[in-house]
Amino acid sequence: MLGLRQPEIYGRATLADVEKLCARAGDRLGLTVDFRQSNLEGELVTWIQQARTKAAGIVLNAGAYTHTSVALLDALNAAEKPCVEVHLSNIHRRESFRHHSYISLAAVGMICGFGPKGYVLALEALADIV
Fold it and tell me: What residues have CB less than 8 Å from 17, skipping those under 6 apart?
């Protein structure tokens, strides 16, 4: 729904636009980017678990699961990989329930409020770590 849902908050960039932005940033930084999206919490957990042996780090925008998912937190802790949390909007300027993040408990850092550029900033941060 990116680009269609609440563009005044999330912008007009589509998921395909963000993927292209990440691919270009990955190429520039010497990172292989495996770009994925799912609305299914269990699928996200599986992908994080797979990252334990297949990835150097994780950039994660968990959407609403950020504020509710202990399962994602447990998966990130078990993966033992550096994770950078990303949000398109500034979650701290929004509803109070969005101010709490389970993901932050496992992340090395969070980038929020910069729209799609936040993914590039996250990849740059991850490149410095890995």
Answer: 3, 116
Q: Residue 97 and residue 75: Cα distance in Å, rounded?
A: 22
Helix, strand or coil for residue 117?
Answer: helix
Give the predicted TM-score (pTM) of the model.
0.93
Pairing of strands 83-87, 58-60: parallel
Calpha distance 94→77 (Å, rounded): 27
Which of these is catalytic: 65, 87, 102, 119? 87
Q: Is 10 a catalytic residue?
A: yes
Catalytic residue among 10, 65, 92, 119: 10
pLDDT tens-digit map of 59-87: 999 999 999 999 999 999 999 999 999 99
Residue 87 is among the residues annotated as catalytic for this protein: yes
